[in-house]
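Record type: monomer structure entry
Structure origin: computed from sequence
Chain ID: A
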Amino acid sequence: MAVCHTIIVDPRTQKFNSSSPDELALVLGAKELGYEFVNRDADKIITVQTPEGILKYKLLNVLEFSSARKRMSIIVRDL
């Protein structure tokens, strides 16, 4: 939930910009469980703060939500 989304952090205000309220709700829910989305940078590196420490992933591909598949998927590489 903290990784599979298209939310972007506004660099000026540090607020989340989401294309869907569902995505925002899932990211905030993951934060409540201890997995906080920190940032996705220009190099498509996703940073997540966990109880065990910081995790980083390279975003390789996004399969956008579609009504036919009824889901969104991403492909990442652990850094």
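Annotation 1: The radius of gyration is 12 Å.
Annotation 2: The chain has a mean pLDDT of 92.
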